[in-house]
Amino acid sequence: MITNHSTAEYENTILGVLPPMLLSDYLYNNMLLKKSYDKNEIIHIEGEECTQIEIIMHGEIVIERIGISGDLMTVNHFGKSDIIGANLIFSSTDRYPMTITAKKHTEVITVQKDVLFELCNSYPTFLMQFIKIISDLSVLIGTKMKNRISRTIRQSIITYLSKQSMLQNSYNIKLTMSKKSLAEMFGVSRTSLSRELQKMSGEGLINFDAKSIQILNKDILE
Fold first, then answer.
1. CA pair distance 114, 120, nearest whole angstrom
2. Which tens digits make up the pLDDT trace of 138-153?
3. Considering only CA atoms, which of 22, 16, 103, 24 is closest in space to residue 55?
4. CB within 8 Å of 94: residues ≥ 6 apart
5. Does domain 148-220 have CATH number 1.10.10.10?
6. Which of 53, 80, 137, 151 has the fewest CB atoms in 10 Å of its CB?
């Protein structure tokens, strides 16, 4: 069926590589659905199954997680033409690892998994663009991890020590969990945590043993 749905607004998104008449038909038949979210509205919660992708038409979406101090931390921002769920939709672990929220009033186009598969299978140009988006996202995540992991581990340690120092009213912190559990809470390996503790000890910031961490330089506390 050929319809008169305007497709001009989709030109700068992945949908822009599709033939205009086909795109118009998909919109007319509700195979591509428009949806809007209010400011601060939760779009997906951690652990929810990813059954669709969302293409942002207007607005801003953020990925958030609860930090070790209990505060809500923003991990990443997505804006116009970006896609939410592209790296999860066909994954064997297809659940959102963090909460996704609309930072401001946001409009998206949702594409269900079966429709996305049909588009990838039938239109090589669309498939190549989708693969490029996933690849670019993987490179971006890898680069961020490479550039920030050392700082992130140290900042996580300092945040934990600051909170525990206040709770225990002491600069000699008794660990409330094993180093393995502490590493899991920080989202790093135990080896990486131990390496960073050794660096901080070598810099004269802390002393530590299996059950405690002594803060030597109080200026590091938040």
1. 10
2. 776 666 555 455 557 8
3. 16
4. 49, 50, 51, 88
5. yes
6. 151
